[in-house]
Amino acid sequence: MGIQKVKGSLEDLIEKAGGCAVVDGGFATQLEKHGATINDSLWSSICLINDPDLIKRVHLEYLEAGADILVTSSYQATLPGFLSKGLSIEEGESLLKKSVKLAVEARDKFWNDKKRISGHSYNRALVAASIGSYGAYLADGSEYSGCYGPNVDLDKLKDFHRRRLQVLVEAGPDLLAFETIPNKLEAQACVELLEEENIQIPSWICFSSVDGENAPSGESFKECLDIINYSNKVSAVGINCAPPHFVQVLVQKFKELTGKVIVVYPNSGEVWDGRAKRWLPSKCFDDDKFKLFATRWRDSGAKLIGGCCRTTPSTIRAISKVLKGPALSSSVAFMTILSIFISNHLFHAGNMATVSNADK
Ligand SMILES: [Zn+2]
């Protein structure tokens, strides 16, 4: 296996960003802020049908905030999902392509405007086509349990992902983002599919985690990453939509388990009350806390950092500034982190919870 030089390589972007590139933040969160109703089996992807202009607007907001990578609105967009809405296969495929097209158009518009301005601090962003896990399609929370039941085997998972993967790649994204993968079996399905389809753009595979130690299925990350490490089609591995206080330890763990780029984009740590269907007001990470911890994730070895559920352009602006700006003096950083640790420790005693769904 040699080092694969592929179009729009992540490594180039990371270098241009100064060693750590910024991924965008919560997509559904921002759509909702603008008034979109996404309480639907397609979740944020319903806006591909109802309000594509809003999708573009949110992409532009994240670019303006400093995101180096846009993740498309296809997380919960699947062909079976579109068929269940009464759409044809052709219409479903066209919507999948549209998710990439909207992000590419936003990126190109933004970049064409910015590159005329001398001294701007932006990079030309990459577009990552989001591929949510099988559990995200089921919309039953299994992306956080990893329990797909006895009838789901490797072939079923590959069959589920194959056509969507082909269609998204045809639409011309810069990379692929497999998100909230909850178990080893689905990681293996993704790896084998990339090989079988001979995909020539880089990919990352991100796992969720509900205990801060293992994949949601209870399988160790060593087992999961051993499979991915053999693939030269996967450029980066990491964590998304886990609470942010898990992330530093997981980055350190991943650093020991893989030589691949590490990508993390946790949620804000807010707690979803599934029964009441609302976000509980909790001591989640505000932007200041998020950005300080982002520097620790970077210092531990993460090279792609962003946000998932309940993070916003303001979170991304904060982390972009701190990750690309001048380093914080170590004593100031230490004191700030110490005070955050103390307040966090007090809060989290006996309060462990996660969000219910990924935010893409
Ligand atoms: Zn999320």
Helix and strand topology:
Layout: H1 10-16, E1 21-22, H2 27-33, H3 46-50, H4 52-65, E2 69-71, H5 79-83, H6 89-114, E3 126-132, H7 134-138, H8 154-170, E4 175-181, H9 184-196, E5 203-207, H10 221-229, E6 234-240, H11 247-257, E7 261-265, E8 271-273, E9 278-280, H12 287-300, E10 302-305, H13 313-324, H14 330-348
Parallel strand pairs: 1-10, 2-3, 3-4, 4-5, 5-6, 6-7, 7-10
Antiparallel strand pairs: 8-9
The chain binds zinc ion.
What does this protein structure show overall?
With 360 residues, the chain is an alpha/beta fold. It has a single domain (10-348), classed as TIM Barrel (Alpha-Beta Barrel), CATH 3.20.20.330. It has 14 helices and 10 strands. The chain has helices spanning 10-16, 27-33, 46-50, 52-65, 79-83, 89-114, 134-138, 154-170, 184-196, 221-229, 247-257, 287-300, 313-324, 330-348, and strands at residues 21-22, 69-71, 126-132, 175-181, 203-207, 234-240, 261-265, 271-273, 278-280, 302-305. The strands form 2 sheets. The chain has an 8-stranded parallel β-sheet with strand order 1-10-7-6-5-4-3-2. Strands 8-9 form a two-stranded antiparallel ribbon. β8 (271-273) and β9 form a beta hairpin. α4 (52-65) runs parallel beside α6, α4 (52-65) packs parallel to α13 (313-324) and α6 packs across α8 (154-170). Residues 1-7 and 343-358 have low confidence and may be disordered. Zinc ion (ZN) binds next to loops.
